[in-house]
TrEMBL record:
Region (Disordered) residue spans: 1-27
Cross-referenced InterPro entries: Beta/Gamma-Crystallin, Beta/gamma_crystallin, G_crystallin-like
The organism's place on the tree of life at top rank: Eukaryota
Taxonomic classification: Eukaryota, Metazoa, Chordata, Craniata, Vertebrata
Family named by the database record: Belongs to the beta/gamma-crystallin family.
Protein name: Beta-crystallin A3
Function: Crystallins are the dominant structural components of the vertebrate eye lens.
Species annotation: Apteryx mantelli (North Island brown kiwi)
Pfam families reported in the protein's UniProt record: Crystall
Keyword list, A-Z: Eye lens protein, Repeat
Beta/gamma crystallin 'Greek key' domain ranges (all copies): 54-93, 94-140, 147-188, 189-237
Length: 238
């Protein structure tokens, strides 16, 4: 059996304790050198990056220049970190959604693992020219291998329905009757729906762990939602 080395005990003015005829010298826990030794001995090393479920690095200048900051959790307002805007970013772990405004409001931008040197790398072909990214959060339910969504023709899960478990660059080309979707149920994973075919236009991130996975009206897709027009949809990769 392998032997382990005990933690070194610092020297100091320890009080004597007699036990079974022998004198043991034990450190009083209130002594300052011992407190410092305990703190340093119990200090934990940072977790390896592969054990972190989500990680993103943001920069205040394009092409990964300027001020930078790393995050492993949601940021509702980048200005509180002394950034006036996010102009480039790298996603090391997990999937994220960025927002045009603070407080997770405005247009949504799907951020999967990779590098984004400029705003147009994450905004894609949106209906409006948007260079702001002021808040972001991880997409915890993203699971590319096990994803399932049911789309409905009308609000409140009424009318024709269609269950999907794959990516569809054009719903109409695959047999959906029109260019609108009234409501959706997310059974597994996270999805991003697009206003136009070919994954273009407004993005709407829909997750199994939000609203209980039930989106009964298009207004629940996001604060920027102005129409129920959905013509392409895909799974978000973790």
């Amino acid at each position: 059996m392998a032997q382990t080395n005990p933690l070194p005990v610092p020297t100091g003015p320890w009080k004597s304790v007699r036990s079974r005829g022998r004198e043991n010298r034990q450190p009083p826990l209130c002594h300052p050198p011992v407190l410092e030794w305990l703190r340093s001995s119990l200090r934990m090393a940072p977790l390896p990056r592969e054990l972190i479920s989500a990680g993103i690095t943001v920069y205040d200048q394009e092409n990964f220049q300027g001020k930078r900051m790393e995050f492993t959790s949601a940021c509702p307002n980048i200005m509180e970190c002394n950034f006036d805007n996010i102009r480039s970013l790298k996603v090391e772990c997990g999937a994220w959604v960025g927002y045009e405004h603070t407080g997770f409001c405005g247009q949504q931008f799907t951020l999967e693992r990779g590098e984004y040197p400029r705003w147009d790398a994450w905004s894609g072909s949106n209906a409006y020219h948007i260079e702001r990214l002021m808040s972001f959060r991880p997409i915890c339910s993203a699971n590319h291998k096990e994803s399932k969504i049911t789309i409905f023709e009308k609000d409140n899960f009424i009318g024709r329905q269609w269950e999907l478990s794959d990516d569809y660059p054009s719903l109409q080309a695959m047999g959906w009757a029109n260019n609108e979707v009234g409501s959706m149920k997310i059974q597994c994973g996270a999805w991003v729906c697009y206003q136009y075919p070919g994954y273009r236009g407004y993005q709407y991130v829909l997750e199994a762990d939000h609203h209980g996975g039930d989106y009964k009206h298009w207004r629940e897709w996001g604060s920027h939602a102005q129409t129920c027009q959905i013509q392409s949809i895909r799974r978000i990769q973790q």
